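Revision sheet: structure tokens.
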Amino acid sequence: SKVIVVEGLLDAKCFPNAVALLGHKVTPEKAFHLRGRDVILLPDKTGGSKFVEASKEYGWKLSLPDWNEKDLNASVSRYGVMEVAKMICDSTFNPTDSNVDLMFKLWRDD
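Predicted:
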């Protein structure tokens, strides 16, 4: 089953199938609990570089939605759950993309 991994608890509470790391680093213990799931990492705009590293390390997908909000909670408040879900799906890619670091930098600096 699909799970959206976010940094904060408020982000996880506002979106279906979202879980919070309560921080920005994916530890081996946290990764163990996500094994067998279709994981999409959704970083905050204000950080999130550890999510890019985790995406590569664990082979999880990464989503960099085209919004100007700082995090998932703010985006749901502005656009609503359905629109945010579409934005997440439309901007999800595999960590094998050779431009993932550049894409993340451009997204965060946007």
